[in-house]
Design goal:
By secondary structure, the chain is mainly beta. The protein is built from no helices and eleven strands. Strands 2, 4, 5, 6, 9, 10 and 11 form a seven-stranded mixed sheet that branches. It has a four-stranded antiparallel sheet with strand order 1-3-8-7, with no helix packed on it. The radius of gyration is 13 Å and the shape is globular. 28% of the residues are buried.
């Protein structure tokens, strides 16, 4: 099994920045990629960003491209989501995810609130 723990959420004004972290533990050798998703109140969970562990290549959803960047610290089995130029519509609970052998592992989520 894989355990994921997010941190770094909080309240920020529009235009500000936050960095989320997601620490993986357990059978991390079986992880090949990790992703960030978010879910706003009354909305479906949506994809935010993805990173491949083999080469640390990442990509982001069009809604956050150019503002959010996903990265990884190989030594710590931790991924990050650097969020810049935040907008009120970025307000959501952010979850990290690791698909492993047909099973999706999720963290508990961290709340990000952007005030206008």
């Amino acid at each position: 099994q894989v355990q994921l723990v997010e941190s770094g959420g909080g309240l920020v004004q529009a235009g500000g920045s936050l960095r989320l972290s997601c620490a993986a533990s357990g059978r991390t050798f079986s992880i090949y990629a990790m992703r960030w998703f978010r879910q706003a109140p009354g909305k479906e969970r949506e994809f935010v960003a993805h990173i491949y562990w083999s080469n640390n290549r990442s990509y982001a959803a069009d809604s956050v491209k150019g503002r959010f960047t996903m990265s990884r610290d190989n030594a710590k089995d931790t991924v990050y989501l650097q969020m810049n130029s935040l907008k009120p519509e970025d307000t959501a609970v952010y979850y990290c995810n690791a698909p492993v052998a047909g099973t999706d592992y999720w963290g508990q989520g961290t709340q990000v609130t952007v005030s206008s």
